[in-house]
């Protein structure tokens, strides 16, 4: 049963996977020939804070470009929301949702879905403080899994619309994008942010900035594993790398071992060779046509797309066929 807390005005429904799931997922990922971790594990409280800092960096065009698209087209996007409850997947600091809430006065219910419980509750509380008409519901869950809409009484018999800003959909493999869209189809229409293909000169600095915030964000997952799973990663023996694979149309982000070493995680021993990588994320980039074809395979009809003047980023309104 989900837990619900009361003292805060924010209603919390906690479907966070238990620590055993985190441990088994990490061990499974570290035992693969190409070691990897799910990007969702990057977003503990510290990871969420670091990602918010990344979004403010001069190299990271994605956030400011998407916010400009929302500001330039707020009326049209707000009209697409109708009177639905607005369900934001991966709510983060909820900066972008504020633009929509200011334009969509008809929206009175906001649902933030995020894996980082404390960060999510703080963001929802801040929204309720700034928008008096708003009821905010915090759902701590992995939004890549089936959404527990039926377990949230406030959403029963209430139309919903999904809002998935940023470029998080790019963390999924193309086949996974189709599965994901089918899963979140329970929300009805979707407003989805999609990063566009462009020069590596723009892309690579966005994911490996001069200040090293992106590196700190990636390496923080090792700190989290040390803290929560009794591991002994020595962060000084790993470095962060990001490269744009033009043939695959994706940024490839990884943590590389600087030497031959063995890491211990509880009773498990995980060997690393010098230069061996632990994959943390892929971030796929699409043309508008490429993404819309994936959406149609998932059973959605592209209603409208908004793009900035520089053709860096796109925001798609999708409707179920």
Q: Going by CATH, what is the homologous superfamily of the largest domain?
A: Vaccinia Virus protein VP39
Mean pLDDT reading: 93
CATH third-level topology of the largest domain: Rossmann fold
Low-confidence stretches: 3-7
Helical segment tally?
Answer: 10
CATH top level assignment of the largest domain: Alpha Beta
The first-to-last residue Cα distance is 34 Å
Largest sheet: 8 strands, mixed
Report the sheet-strand fraction. Answer: 25-35%
Task: Explain what you see.
With 321 residues, this protein is an alpha/beta fold. The protein has 2 domains: 11-20 and 46-199 and 285-320, 3-Layer(aba) Sandwich (Rossmann fold); 34-45 and 200-284, no CATH class. It is built from 10 helices and 13 strands. It has helices at 19-30, 45-54, 61-72, 74-81, 95-103, 117-130, 174-184, 200-207, 213-229, 288-297; strands spanning 11-14, 85-89, 109-114, 135-140, 160-164, 190-195, 238-245, 250-257, 261-265, 268-272, 277-284, 300-307, 313-320. An 8-stranded mixed beta sheet has the order 1-4-3-2-5-6-13-12, sandwiched between helices. Strands 7-8-11 form a 3-stranded antiparallel beta sheet. Helix 7 links the parallel strand 5 and strand 6. Helix 3 (61-72) packs parallel to helix 5 (95-103) and helix 4 (74-81) crosses helix 5. The longest helix is centred in the last third of the chain and has 17 residues, at 213-229. The chain is globular. The two termini are 34 Å apart. The relative contact order is 0.16. Residues 3-7 have low confidence and may be disordered.
């Amino acid at each position: 049963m989900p837990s619900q807390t009361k003292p805060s005005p924010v209603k919390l429904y906690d479907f966070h996977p238990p620590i055993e799931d985190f441990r088994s997922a990490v061990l499974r990922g570290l035992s693969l020939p190409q070691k990897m971790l799910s990007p969702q594990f990057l977003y503990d409280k510290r990871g969420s804070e670091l990602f918010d800092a990344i979004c403010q960096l001069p190299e990271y065009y994605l956030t400011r470009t998407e916010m400009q698209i929302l500001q330039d087209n707020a009326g049209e996007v707000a009209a697409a929301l109708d009177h639905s409850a607005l369900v934001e997947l991966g709510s983060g600091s909820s900066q972008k949702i504020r633009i929509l809430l200011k334009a969509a006065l008809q929206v009175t219910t906001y649902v933030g879905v995020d894996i980082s419980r404390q960060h999510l509750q703080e963001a929802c509380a801040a929204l309720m403080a700034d928008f008096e008409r708003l009821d905010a519901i915090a759902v701590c869950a992995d939004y890549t899994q089936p959404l527990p809409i039926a377990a949230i009484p406030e959403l029963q018999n209430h139309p919903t619309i999904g809002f998935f800003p940023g470029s998080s959909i790019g963390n999924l493999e193309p086949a996974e994008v189709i599965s994901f869209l089918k899963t979140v189809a329970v929300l009805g229409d979707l407003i989805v942010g999609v990063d566009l293909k462009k020069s590596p000169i723009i892309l690579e600095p966005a994911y490996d900035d001069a200040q090293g915030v992106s590196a700190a964000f990636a390496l923080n997952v090792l700190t989290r594993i040390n803290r929560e799973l009794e591991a002994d990663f020595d962060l000084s023996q790993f470095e962060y790398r990001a490269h744009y694979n033009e043939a695959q149309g994706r940024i490839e982000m990884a943590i590389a071992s600087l030497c031959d070493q063995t890491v211990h995680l509880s009773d498990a021993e995980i060997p690393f060779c010098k230069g061996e990588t632990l994959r943390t994320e892929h971030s796929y980039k699409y043309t508008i046509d490429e993404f819309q074809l994936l959406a149609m395979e998932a059973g959605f009809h592209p209603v409208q797309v908004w793009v900035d003047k520089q053709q860096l980023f796109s925001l798609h309104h999708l409707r179920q066929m």
